[in-house]
Design a protein that fits this description.
Blueprint lengths: L1 E9 L3 H19 L2 E6 L4 H7 L5 H9 L2 E6 L14 H12 L3 E7 L12 H4 L3 E7 L7 E9 L2 E7 L4 H16 L4 E6 L5 H14 L6 E6 H10 L6 E4 L1 H14 L7 E5 L5 E5 L16 H13 L4 H16 L13 H12 L1
Parallel strand pairs: 1-2, 1-3, 3-12, 5-10, 8-9, 8-10
Antiparallel strand pairs: 4-5, 4-11, 6-7, 11-12
Helix pairs in contact: 1-10, 1-12, 6-7, 8-9, 10-11, 11-12
The chain binds nicotinamide-adenine-dinucleotide (NAD).
Nicotinamide-adenine-dinucleotide (NAD) binds next to loops.
């Protein structure tokens, strides 16, 4: 097959890990006879420096026209001023909205050899294989009014948490379809005891669930979900939730795997290109040192091959190569090793070929 892939390296370690991920894509292309065309664009702090905005229209259009988009990470201390009008994260939010990617998929699996790298007791981690599906284009991060001001001499800040029925239905429906291919369990996470938007979420999820009699649905309050992710994570299969709950719970879930650097994500919409990125940030503390863990980015391109290009064998080959690389003891510093970024990728590629 032939595909056009836009790469948005971003800031910090973003360029380092996307370079490694594209090397793995090239290795797959050579091995399986595919052609991937890459083009690179600025996003985040680097785009602010060059263009005064975190995402230009030209970059957004290039992404819309691509078959898939690979993103590194954005942000860093240079652009961290909370009073700044232009911020790197704005680029990320506009990109997700612009591509219409309403579902963020974050698989969390714990390699047996990495259980000791997690702060949790090793026996809790046996059998952990969960997929968090986070709603990505609604909720508090996008609702309006969203403003600061002064009223009657009192300074206030407002964010709005609003969900429309179709926004819930489409992401929950996707979660059920994904569960059908896995262990057929969906945990829908909400705060229905307090929030109106959560009561709507629960009502619609229950209705959608009726179309999937083969999948078991349970509703879990977000506080309980946060607790169960630590006390019994292996009991979850697919977890689906709204934007901010998902943001927080996925970071919590990432701790299970031992390092943020290990985890990939895929953001998907109804149609159009998927957006693939490791879940970690730009890690300014280690940027430029050549020690970033590239596996989250590499596993993200495995998701790209699976979800955007339907290349299941190639996706599984990358995941297997990553597993073997870890089993053979190859580790970056975040996993307690001392190997550099490139050495890890070299090993993944050598296992692949
Ligand atoms: P971070 O994920 O960048 O780093 C947290 C810790 O994990 C750091 O100690 C870092 O060195 C380590 N780490 C992260 N990825 C790693 C990797 N691949 N290999 C080895 N170690 C790794 O989170 P942060 O420090 O809270 O944020 C730094 C910047 O990144 C901020 O500007 C933040 O806004 C931004 N950020 C961006 C995204 C994104 O682009 N999607 C996500 C989260 C944070």
């Amino acid at each position: 097959m032939e595909a056009n892939i836009v790469i948005l390296p971003g800031d910090g370690i973003g360029p380092e890990v996307t370079t490694e991920a594209s090397r793995v894509l090239n290795a797959i292309a050579a091995q399986y006879g595919h052609t991937f065309h890459f083009s690179q664009h600025l996003l985040g702090g680097c785009s602010i420096d060059q263009h005064g905005t975190a995402l230009t229209e030209a970059t957004l259009n290039a992404c819309k026209q691509a078959d898939a988009v690979l993103l590194g990470a954005v942000g860093g201390p240079k652009w961290d001023n909370p009073n700044a009008k232009v911020r790197p994260e704005q680029g990320l939010l506009r990109l997700r909205k612009g591509l219409g990617v309403f579902a963020n998929l974050r698989p969390v699996k714990v390699h047996p050899d990495l259980r000791s790298a997690s702060p949790l007791k090793e026996e809790k981690l046996k059998g952990v294989d969960l997929l968090v599906v986070r709603e990505l284009t609604g909720g508090l991060y996008f609702g309006t009014p969203k403003e600061r001001g002064i009223r009657d001499g009192v300074e206030y800040g407002i964010d709005t948490l609003e969900y429309k029925d179709f926004e819930i239905k489409r992401v929950v429906d996707l979660a059920f379809r994904l569960a059908q291919k896995r262990n057929k369990k969906v945990a829908s996470v909400d705060k229905a005891n307090v929030l109106e938007s959560s009561r709507l979420w629960r009502q619609i999820t229950t209705k959608v669930g009726e179309n999937y009699p083969d999948v078991t649905l349970e509703h879990v309050l977000v506080d309980t979900a946060a607790m169960r992710l630590i006390s019994s994570p292996a009991n979850f299969d697919v977890m689906v939730t709204e934007n901010m709950f998902g943001d927080i719970l996925t970071d919590e879930a990432s701790v299970l795997s031992g390092s943020m650097g290990m985890l990939p994500s895929a953001s998907l919409g109804e149609s159009g290109p998927g957006l693939y990125e490791p879940i970690h940030g730009s890690a300014p503390d280690i940027a430029g040192k050549g020690i970033a863990n590239p596996l989250g980015a590499i596993l993200s391109v495995a998701l790209m091959l699976r979800y955007s290009f339907q290349l299941e064998n190639e996706a599984a080959a990358i995941e297997k190569a990553v597993d073997q690389t870890i089993s053979s003891g190859y580790r970056t510093t975040d996993l307690g090793g001392d190997l550099g970024t490139r050495v890890i990728t070299d090993q993944v590629i050598s296992v692949l070929s």
